[in-house]
Amino acid sequence: MKKSFVYLITNKNNTVIYCGVTSNLVKRVYQHKTKYYKGFTARYNCGKLVYFEEYNSIVQAIAREKQLKAGNRKRKELLIQSINPHWKDLSEGWVFAM
């Protein structure tokens, strides 16, 4: 069964939080870091992975993404701080060989 992920990514000053869903977290984070797509995260320089959850189905991941997007920033901040209190880049040290 293919894994799916919901993730929160931010910029270096933690002023913007973007919520996304993917079936390949390493590839997607690489795309954000390199501004592969010229959208929201490229415009706001979001490339720091600060939170993610893993799911067994894309349907579950999309449902969770919608739940997170419906919440306010404070809830997202609390979620990040629950596992990553210093807002470190969780993808630091990952090898991005695409």
From TrEMBL:
Keywords: Endonuclease, Hydrolase, Nuclease
CDD domains named in the record: GIY-YIG_unchar_3
Top-level taxonomic group: Bacteria
MF terms (GO), sorted A to Z: endonuclease activity
Protein name in the entry: Putative endonuclease
Family named by the database record: Belongs to the UPF0213 family.
A Pfam family annotated for this UniProt entry: GIY-YIG
Keyword presence, RNA-binding: no
PANTHER family (UniProt xref): BSL5627 PROTEIN (PTHR34477:SF5), UPF0213 PROTEIN YHBQ (PTHR34477)
All residue ranges annotated as the GIY-YIG domain in the record: 2-78
Source organism phylogeny: Bacteria, Pseudomonadati, Bacteroidota, Flavobacteriia, Flavobacteriales
Record bears the keyword Hydrolase: yes
InterPro entries the record matches: GIY-YIG_endonuc (IPR000305), GIY-YIG_endonuc_sf (IPR035901), UPF0213_domain (IPR050190)
